[in-house]
């Protein structure tokens, strides 16, 4: 019997039931996808780490090293289980040429530091796509998947190294998986050579850099170990990397993917609830007399409720199953980055099981919500259900008054607008769905615009300039500093420049344990950064610290911080707390000169006159300054650093726009179909008093267009109000060193393209659906 009822209802309201079914499908699909991507990200990284065994702490160092001192320190440290010092040959991109079947090009535009290495024996292993140890023979080369994706290289392409008069050609044998340098945010990448080729090139090309790697009994102690290492005065001319930092940078792109998918799935579930509620209430109103009869003959509330509930439960079950199947089928689109970066791996059983669990949760939430809506049946009395007709709206009197008095608006516009405003509650489904669709589209779009904007550099510890120049630590650091200064003084294209000197001072954390604080010192240190509280230093006794440092030290703005400089204590006032994703998020800024401390590095931010070609100038300076000094155009640096994240977001946004368009169409169809069925008597009256079919269609177009526009504008306002808060929750929980981001909007997209696209789509669907009015016979309408 129940199945017969469901079958008849499905046949009678095909479009309405199809729309509800698709809402369930999309909700379950995106919820399942967010779980699949999350599980695949962490299981893939874990699988890669099991085979590759990345270090818990790695110190990169250019210059000479004392292996005996390193070995002595490591062997005496109680937390060390294993250590190794690896050699890497740093190469400039212009020294590397790729020769493919179709074209030949060099890597001069690559802003990543490229290093040549040979395979390690036991730890920090470079793997092939099958998660096996990559074996490279003489004359062959293993290229990281990072470079493969950036330049679309293929197996069999030839790599030509040309440096210091030495030319050597290799064939790409493998695309390797690097557990430690697999993200553009790492700023470095490694190319694998055979041991013979590596030994032949060492000392003849490029510059030697050492990777000092340590394995601890507990990877969580990496930050404490870093402090011990630095305090021991061991080599540190380069970036220090901890295990947690490696994991976070590796997973960043996919963490953002999970956040966006999960956020959109929640919005979809909300739309589903709104549509289900509207459909149930419309069905109950249509069946009011039948409900009264059932109550009169003694049917219990639960029996009556279940007659309605069984249909929605069936649609929910079918939608959840279909959504889960679709999620599994299209998951490869969203896990492509995972497969490329961490190796092609089938969807794990954990991902499948958890996606099923989340789909079941979606079903139970939907079922529970339907029960809540259907409780209205319990409140209805037998008399009320049998005698009530279509209740007059409370605002009907005001509605009539406005119509009588208004003489300026055309009648169709007047009727349409008045009904929307005086019976606003009847149009809430269109209003709320428009809001949610706008939020679904604009928040991810604004997040993408922010990450690809040059202004995002202010969250990376730098101000927005044309070019950044950096010189690393080492015996030539002061000579390199003078060389850069002379170059900047001579160049007439320079508008202005700022210089900063990084030093390392000791202080204490919240537990009163010694820790190292890396400070950038300069007259403009901290200017134009994104401060959570306070401001940049204005006096020499002031210090601005990063958000993560503030957490570690338990400090707030205006607190006193004590630095230990050359055996003496010096107090500084914390002028502000800023956001920084560089150097693991642990930095500080000050105007103080710190004359007694050694320089870790110098950096210069340079602005040019308007007509200067920044890229050409950067290439020119790179040639002049040579090894040991990095010259990078700011915009290219951001594009390459965050390009992977932006590209992944772009793919997701494309899918979201398709889903949003479908949802907009389904909601519009669902609402108008139910509305037309409900308004048969009103349509009959309008036709009887002389309104044409065209007039009635126009009124519906005006009503839908008006309420949709209000919803779209409300959605844009809510995007401005809530967009940053929602994005900040995700970014701060990622531990990047960012707590509060000001989303950068594209006014053309937000205020013109998105609203126009949605309103035109809604009006088009409305026009198509309301054409069915011409099939209505006026006599039939009046009789009904």
Automatic annotation (TrEMBL):
Membrane-spanning parts? 15-39, 245-276, 315-335, 347-370, 427-448, 652-672, 700-723, 743-770
Record Pfam families: FtsX
Give the principal location in a single coarse category: membrane
Bilayer disposition of the protein: Multi-pass membrane protein
Localization per record: Cell membrane
Which positions fall inside the ABC3 transporter permease C-terminal domain?
Answer: 262-365, 655-778
Per the record, GO CC terms?
plasma membrane
For this UniProt record, give its keywords in alphabetical order, as a comma-separated list: Cell membrane, Membrane, Transmembrane, Transmembrane helix
Write out the coiled-coil annotation as residue ranges: none
Q: What is this protein called?
A: ABC transporter permease
Q: Taxonomic lineage per UniProt? A: Bacteria, Bacillati, Bacillota, Clostridia, Lachnospirales
